[in-house]
Write a structure and sequence with these properties.
Layout (H helix, E strand, L loop, with lengths): L5 H18 L32 H4 L3 E9 L13 E2 L5 E9 L1 E12 L4 E11 L3 E7 L8 E9 L2 E11 L1
Parallel strand pairs: 2-8
Antiparallel strand pairs: 1-3, 3-6, 4-5, 4-7, 7-8
């Protein structure tokens, strides 16, 4: 069962309504240049502009992932120097740089080993009104098995950003 938020439900309803309107569009008649001009009717007045607050869908701004970096240590500003090679006892930090506004957005990171096995998966909650960096740290007390890994990021359960690959030797 897929969990949807009220915002997602409203977006789906708006999308379906748009598709229905496009499907109901009347096919325009072709013009005959030799026919007598048809009588013109006055154009209908445009609908009055909306006043007051916009609907809730227009108020929520989306958050997007601008960069994903995998590294070993984070600086005070949460930036992470990229690393492609790790030792078995190293921490793996997946740094996610986002833009936009979010309230209680879930930022998830997943590490996958070369055989497709999930080596780790964690989530963090994001509340921001602008650019933000969220770091997710993975530790393995027994040491990471040697091999190739892939770090993937999700925002509210949807793939986001560019997956990063690294190796443990």
């Amino acid at each position: 069962m897929i969990k949807t938020s009220p915002l997602q439900t409203a977006l789906i309803a708006a999308l379906l309504g748009s598709v229905a309107l496009v499907g109901c569009k009347k096919k325009e008649e072709s013009t005959d240049n030799n026919a007598a001009p048809a009588a013109t009717t006055p154009a209908e007045p445009a609908p009055a502009p909306m006043t007051g607050a916009p609907p809730p869908m227009a108020q929520a701004a989306a958050v997007s992932v601008s960069t994903v970096t995998v590294g070993k240590t984070a600086a005070a500003d949460k930036s992470v120097a990229p690393a492609a090679l790790f030792a078995p006892k190293d921490d793996v930090i997946v740094s996610v740089r986002t833009d936009g506004a979010a309230s209680n957005a879930t930022v998830g990171a997943k590490l996958t080993f070369q055989d497709g096995q999930v080596a780790g998966e964690q989530n963090a909650t994001l509340n921001t009104s602008g650019a933000e960096t969220t770091n997710v740290t993975f530790k393995n007390a027994n040491g990471w098995p040697a091999g190739k890994y892939r770090a993937e990021v999700m925002v509210d359960g949807k793939a986001a950003g560019t997956p990063q690959e690294f190796e443990v030797k």
